Amino acid sequence: MKQHPHELDNLVDVLTINVSRFFRNTLAFDYIADKILPAIVFDKKNDRDPSLRIWSAGCATGEEPYSIAILIQELQRKESLSLSVNIFATDIDEKVLKKARKAVYPYASIKNIKYRLLKRYFEDQGKHFQLIPRIQEMVAFSAFDMLDKRSYAPSESVFGGFDMIFCKNVLIYFSKEYQERIFDKLHRSLARGGYLVLGRAEIPTGEYRRHFRKVSDCGPIYQKR
User: Fold this and answer.
1) Which of 183, 192, 178 is nearest to 225 (CA)?
2) What does the DSSP assignment read for 160-186?
3) I want to staple 103 with a disulfide (CB 3.0 to 4.6 A). Which of 119, 131, 139, 204 is the partner?
4) Are 89 and 56 in contact (CB under 8 A)?
5) Gap between the Cα atoms of 163 and 86, Å rounded
6) Distance between CA 119 and CA 56 in Å, rounded?
7) CA distance 180 to 209
8) What pLDDT, on the 0 to 100 scale, is given for residue 19?
9) CB 165 within 8 A of CB 194
């Protein structure tokens, strides 16, 4: 593998499963829009902290982090907010990251989007839909290995301190040992009181069960104690 790095890239393509669409699990996104984001913003106002930091781990072709960006943009429109928003989106697969940066999607990827949001944030190009630049600019994509022992958060983020982390349908592909290693990263990367959004079949493992409390079955969604 060291002598043929392209073979490693091919192996990553085979072993990683990239299934994604905008607002996948609509119940979870509705709960985040109605409950979680307003709660975070309320705390930010009280603390006079205008920054919002979010990490989408295992972002695939970008539908998840862009969905988050749309929710935040809608909240800012509704509440006339002025937030410094930093959304970091990572994946181990460079090929899907390249697609994510282009932000061009087929109908199958956008079928869960409400019509008013589709008209507001996408340009219809016939067979595909192009996300508008304003939303693209809210998301920073980079390659990141969740099992890399040398770092616990994306280097582009400089430090953790995330208000929310999405790590949906990633853990199910790892053994319990590796899941605990990933939960260590997620726990260390979250700010106190930060939220963790997992896939439907995923729960905190081992000692990390006591470090999170479930706030909703939609997702499910946990909060760091």
Assistant:
1) 192
2) --EEEEEETTSGGGS-HHHHHHHHHHH
3) 131
4) yes
5) 10
6) 24
7) 10
8) 66
9) yes
User: 42: Cβ–Cβ under 8 A, 6 or more apart, which residues?
Assistant: none
Domain boundaries defined on the chain? 26-101+132-224
Sign (positive/negative) of CA torsion 33, 34, 37, 41?
positive
92-132 pLDDT, tens digit each: 999 999 999 999 999 999 999 999 999 999 999 999 999 99
Of the candidates 123, 157, 153, 117, the one whose C-alpha atom is nearest the C-alpha of residue 139 is 157
Structure tokens at 54: 């979010």
The fold for domain 26-101+132-224 equals: Rossmann fold (3.40.50)
pLDDT surpasses 90 at 14: no
DSSP 8-state symbol, 155: G
Please tell me the predicted confidence (pLDDT) of residue 83.
87
What CA–CA distance (Å, rounded) separates 37 from 122? 23
Task: Give the pair of three-digit tokens for residue 109.
Answer: 């990827």
Phi and psi for 212 in degrees, rounded to 5? -130, 145
Return phi, psi of residue 170, to 5°: -110, -50
**pLDDT tens-digit map of 146-158:** 999 999 999 999 9
Single-letter amino acid, residue 17: I
Q: In this structure, are residues 24 and 112 in contact, taking their beta carbons and an 8 Å threshold?
A: yes
